[in-house]
């Protein structure tokens, strides 16, 4: 297999994608790229680092945090609170970093080419589409076309999970023995997952639907997270 690059956030999706490439696709020449975009949840970068060390994958962390001065989002701006609730609620739009994926994919493409890679992978999935425009298939397809033409030789952008739900990703990851205990999702940047923010809810739902406890959480945290999630689900059904 030729050399490839992957955008690795340290969360569940991109980590599963890394394991998928290493085991199912037998990719042995891979470089992982992470971004420090000034996110509150720096823990995910630590997770990415640890995962790469564990899997002996070359890793670059690129600091684009200076962009925070000009891009506003609850993920990066201390004055904007991280909202709690479901991803499809309008308040979750506050967590959209404007054009984040195009910025990251564009830089990662340059890094991939500089490292001799001709394929760039990223872990966008079906659950992202509702809220994040730059995770939707239309965006991905349009950008893939541009990236293919950006250099002398074609560069391929691939998002193998684009039509999978997060629960599907967890199911695949469990088959691949992904150490989910070493991944991080919560947006709040606390010592432990808050269990309430959009990404915590989404993570609980994915593990619940996959029929397993989230290994990152203690049994007690898992019970609390499940009850918050189920309560929200009930309220949502009542509303609709
Ligand atoms: Zn959280």
Structure description:
The chain has about 240 residues and is of the alpha/beta class. About 40% of the residues lie in helices and about 10% in strands. The chain has helices at about 10-25, 45-55, 100-115, 135-150, 165-175, 200-210, 220-240; strands spanning about 5, 30-35, 60-65, 120, 155-160. The protein has a 5-stranded parallel β-sheet with strand order 3-2-1-4-5, sandwiched between helices. Helix 1 crosses helix 5, helix 5 crosses helix 6 (about 200-210) and helix 6 (about 200-210) crosses helix 7. The protein is globular, with a radius of gyration of 17 Å. The chain starts with a strand and ends with a helix. Zinc ion binds next to helix 6. Zinc ion binds near residues 186, 187, 193, 197 and 200.
SSE layout:
Layout: E1 4-7, H1 12-24, E2 30-36, H2 43-55, E3 58-63, H3 100-114, E4 119-121, H4 137-148, E5 156-158, H5 166-175, H6 198-210, H7 219-239
Parallel strand pairs: 1-2, 1-4, 2-3, 4-5
This protein binds zinc ion.
Zinc ion binds at residues 186-188, 193-194, 196-197, 199-200.
Average of pLDDT: 88
How do the strands line up in the largest sheet?
3-2-1-4-5
Strand content: 5-15%
* Strand tally: 5
Low-confidence stretches: none
Distance from first to last alpha carbon: 49 Å
Task: List the main descriptive attributes of the protein structure presented here.
single chain; 240 residues; alpha/beta; 5-stranded parallel sheet; 7 helices; globular; binds zinc ion
In short:
The chain has helices at residues 12-24, 43-55, 100-114, 137-148, 166-175, 198-210, 219-239, and strands at 4-7, 30-36, 58-63, 119-121, 156-158. By secondary structure, it is an alpha/beta fold.
């Amino acid at each position: 297999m030729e050399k490839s690059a992957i955008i690795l956030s340290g969360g569940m999706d991109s980590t599963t994608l890394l394991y998928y490439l290493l085991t199912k696709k037998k990719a042995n020449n891979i470089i992982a790229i992470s971004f420090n975009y000034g996110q509150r949840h720096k823990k995910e970068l630590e997770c990415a680092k640890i995962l790469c060390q564990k899997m002996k994958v070359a890793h670059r962390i690129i600091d684009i945090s200076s962009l925070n001065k000009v891009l506003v989002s609850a993920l990066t701006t201390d004055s904007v609170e991280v909202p709690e609730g479901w991803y499809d609620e309008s308040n979750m739009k506050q967590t959209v970093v404007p054009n984040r994926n195009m910025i990251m994919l564009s830089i990662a493409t340059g890094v991939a080419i500089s490292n001799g890679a001709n394929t760039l992978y990223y872990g966008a999935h079906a659950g992202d589409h509702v809220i994040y425009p730059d995770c939707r298939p239309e965006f991905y397809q349009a950008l893939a076309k541009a990236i293919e033409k950006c250099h002398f030789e074609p560069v391929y952008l691939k998002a193998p999970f684009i039509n999978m739900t997060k629960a599907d990703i967890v199911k695949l990851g469990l088959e691949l023995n992904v150490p989910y205990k070493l991944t991080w999702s919560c947006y709040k940047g606390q010592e432990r997952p808050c269990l309430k923010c959009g990404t915590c809810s989404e993570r609980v739902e994915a593990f619940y639907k996959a029929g397993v406890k989230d290994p990152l959480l203690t049994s007690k945290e898992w019970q609390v997270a499940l009850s918050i999630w189920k309560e929200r689900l009930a309220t949502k059904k009542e509303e609709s």
